[in-house]
Structure formats: structure tokens, C-alpha cells
């Protein structure tokens, strides 16, 4: 992202359009979006930003929430109020806060899938001592649905052209029409700002408000991608030459109870090839919890099969 635009005059030139519909002066976009952006005090030093996503509901970046109690939010008028942590999801790096008795207007959200590389964008943040701040840049790259390294599913891949300034995790990312495409985060890709798309924010917010967590399937294995020897590929008539070496097992985990051993090589889960962890994650959505899945392994050079009952992934406490 580019230099801070919080000091731009109201005579700033109009930005070029992205997508359809008229573009607005940058300062107008910052002012309008900024009315729905708050500062979130969930860690010791610098606050992060948060977005009024629904009436009484703030969406922010989960990695900036380091405590469960005593969270406060600075509103657009400078007042500071208590916030209740409704839940957080490390997989998508999204946290949801409830504000009692606060009725600020939610942002107007758009479809992040409409963004293309080169589209201009504004990150709108809020810090206690400076009020609203803006950072201007371009979208670096985009793509379809993307699974994060933490196992969460984003509805679109949107990478910004650089890193985020301190305090900009949790900021609103707006296009040149002033529609908020999603929430900014620095925790999902090293050295680059990412956008949690609005569709993902909606879906995860529903689940966090309903039950305080996002449920994902769990086997309890640690794995490492490995290349399979040609002799194994030919002997077992495999259509691929890589698998996942089981290098650790959580005590009492579904995989351990099913008889999986350290040193096994996982090649299929529920009939789906497991050449990398994406294959495992694809089979372990929330709908798989409690289901019995067939696992295919290579053990001692021979094909081995067993059944595993998928558990629910333990919720790691990130608020520390």
C-alpha cells in the first residue's frame, strides 16, 4: 500500500473507476467508510482497526485480539466503550465483537470477486490518537477460493501490493466506488496484506455469533509432503507420485484411535487423493465431523486401509 492519505484535501481529483458505477473523490470515500470504522483495543500497545459489519457487530482481525475480557472499542466520535468477544476464527483470521447500546451504520459491502490485479483500493483504519487514516494502493493479485495455511477457506484470494501499516489489520478495504470489499489482515501471508472477502466475513460472522467458534474436522496428524518412490507408484498403480508422511500423532486423536502409525504415508482420504494438505482440508469441512471416512495409507510399501471417525478440531486459545 502507498502513503497515508488522511491529510488529502477535499479538492482531491476523482479516482478512476473499478468495475461499474461512478467513482468518488478519495476523501469522500474515506470519510464515508470511516464513519463505520472503529479502533479495537484487544492488545497491549497499538490498537487495531475494526469495521461495523452489522448493527452492533464489529468484525476485525483475530490475530490482534490477545485477551477475552476487557476489550474496548473507540467509536467514530472518540468515545470508548466496552466490547464483548462473540468469537474468533484463526483459520480465516476473523474475530467478531458485540457492542451493546451502540447503533452505528454498517458499511456497504461489495463482492471481492470483482477485484482484478491493478484495481486501486483504499484501506481505511482508525487509531485512537489520529482518528481515521487511509492507505492507498493497488490490488496485487486475485484468484478463486483459497485455503489459508491455518485451514480456513476464503471465498476469494485478494493480495494487496505490499504490507500493511501498523494498526491497519482489521481495516476496511474499499474500492473506488466506496464499497467495502472485505477486512485487511497481515496474518495470512508473510510480507503481504491480504483481504478477508466480505462473503467470508458474512459466513464466518454468522457462525461465530451463533456458537462462538467455527467447526472444522480433525484427524490429529502432523504431516510432511513427500515424493513416492517409483517402485511404490508402479507396484500400487498410483496415478500420482506424492503423499503425506505422518510424522506426529496427537494423543487420543481420531487418527490414533483408528490405528494410524507414525511413518505411514497418507495417499487418500474418503476416496480423494491426498498429495498435499489441501486435499486433507477439502475433506474435513464442518459437515464431516462425526462421519466415518476411509483412509488409504502406504505402510511398509503396501497399501493399507482403515476407517476414522472425524473429530472436531480443538479450539486453540489465541487470547494470550
UniProtKB/TrEMBL annotation:
One function term, GO molecular function aspect: serine-type endopeptidase activity
Residue span, PDZ domain: 225-301
Gene3D superfamilies: 2.30.42.10, 2.40.10.120
Region (Disordered): 1-25
Biological process according to GO: proteolysis
UniProt-listed Pfam families: PDZ_2, Trypsin_2
Entry keywords, A to Z: Hydrolase, Plasmid, Protease
Name listed for the protein in its UniProt record: Serine protease
Organism encoding this protein: Paraburkholderia pallida
Upper taxonomic lineage: Bacteria, Pseudomonadati, Pseudomonadota, Betaproteobacteria, Burkholderiales
